[in-house]
Amino acid sequence: MSPHKHGLIGVVEDDPVQGGTLKHRLGLEGYTPLWWCTGQEALEGLCAAHPDLVICDIRLPDMDGEELFVQALPRLGGKPFLFVTAFGQIAQAVRLTKAGAVDYVTKPYAMSDLLGRISRLIALRPDATGVLGASQAMCQVEMLLRRVANIDSSLLLMGESGVGKEVAARFVHMISTRTQAPFRAVNCAAMPGELIESELFGHEKGAFTGAHARHQGYVEQARDGVLFLDEVGELPLPVQAKLLRLIEDRAFTRVGGETAIKTRARLICATNADVERAVAEGRFRGDLYYRINVISVVIPPLRDRRDDILPLAQKFMRDFAGAFAREIHGFTPAAEQALLEHPWLGNVRELRNCVERAVALSVTPWIGADALLPSKPAEPIGAEGRHRTLAEVRDRAERDHIRAVRAHSGKRVGELAKVLGVSRRTLFEKMRKLNIRPDG
Questions:
Q1: Cβ-based burial of 421 (10 A; exposed 0-12, middle 13-18, buried ≥19)
Q2: Distance CA 90, CA 94 (A)
Q3: Rounded to the nearest 5 degrees, what angle is found at the Cα of 300, between the Cα atoms of 320 and 222?
Q4: From CA 84, how far away is CA 42, in angstroms rounded?
Q5: How distant, in Å, are the alpha carbons of 72, 81, 82, 342, 408 from that of 354?
Q6: How many domains in the chain?
Q7: Do 340 and 309 meet the contact criterion of CB atoms below 8 Å apart?
Q8: CA 174 to CA 61: how far, in whole Å?
Q9: Would you state the pLDDT for residue 3?
Q10: CA of 100: how far to CAs of 21, 60, 118, 196, in Å?
Q11: Do 144 and 285 sit in the same domain of this protein?
């Protein structure tokens, strides 16, 4: 349980009287307040602390609250942001709530009203379910995605290849009010440059050679749902211009068409590239980058969230065991250790592929380290390669099975022999033949 029984609350207020008063009152109410006087102090504090709620004045000495909110959003993990504003700044506060801030109060405010709102927001704070991962990093990602699931602002998912950006996008679609509407995923890097505009926006009959009928593109197919553009940084510049118009006008025209078609689909983009560098080099439009990067979420690499490795591996193992009709009980301790020590440069995709291969080729109920992460390439089985003999295959399978059962049961040799259905003498002979130490 958290040591902050009623909630940890960040206060961003440069006025010493108002900030001190609010901090004191929050403490009396049982909350744990953190008081920052500038936006920079708040950004630094949010790197170390994870408050359940942030109360922020829109006017700060070094930056305004809007700039602070945009920079802090990836660190908030979906936690609510409550703005305090003067009457003349209400329009800005309303715009911020549409961008993901939870609420605002106007000065002067009644302390009882503010405390009431704080109490309600703390009670409604989202909890991570672990659906995207068990690690703290992925729980933060999940809570942030839950926070922005039902707003229309463009969402940009960033991270290395294989970290699960499409999984995150599908999660947003699943938990949003758009869940019954279509989800259309487009890999921008996989489509030929001459076809991508037609695939995205569709075309009219006769628009070009081979256009024998009207075609609905992915944008039109998404309707009121979600359009997910993976590897958005690979879009050609002409298509980028049309995508920018789509975001700004919420409308598009098919290739060869003249009629503007309205769309209500939410746009989620993903990239593993350095888009800012692409902008600087002229390969990506700066105005489009700022429009797709309203809310950005970084999916960390698997090597930085090792608490997710074993749960993910076990999930993949269960999925593939069912799909392949294999009776797999789990991983040996050595295999689990190997999983935790592997660098996973290919991230979750690499982990999934390793488990799939191990389950498909497994000849024992327990998957060993060698089956999961072979230390050398598999022996060739072609005409010029040497086939392993049946005896070699049997010996390896028996060796792995004996080690796995002993590792998980902890039984002595005599009891282990009963479990394996052989005599004590037979088991000793097999262990000697297979180079398995009785005490190792």
A1: exposed
A2: 6
A3: 70
A4: 15
A5: 37, 41, 45, 11, 22
A6: 3
A7: yes
A8: 41
A9: 46
A10: 27, 20, 17, 32
A11: yes
* 149 shares its domain with 199: yes
Name the 3-class secondary structure at 159. coil
- CA 256, chain centre distance (Å): 38
Under 8 Å between Cβ of 216 and 202: yes
Q: Report pLDDT digits (tens) over 3-23.
A: 444 789 999 999 999 999 999
Q: Is pLDDT above 80 for 1?
A: no
Task: Please give the structure tokens belonging to residue 326.
Answer: 């294999």
- Domain of residue 357, residue span: 304-433
3-state SS, residue 50: coil
Q: Does residue 131 form part of some domain? A: no
What are the residues whose beta carbons fall under 8 Å from the beta carbon of 388, sequence distance 6 or more? 379
Please state, in angstroms and rounded to a whole number, the distance separating the CA atoms of residues 171 and 64. 32
- The pLDDT, as a whole number, for residue 107 is 82
Helix extents (H) in 325-436 = 333-341, 347-361, 369-372, 390-409, 413-420, 424-433
pTM for the predicted model, two decimal places: 0.63
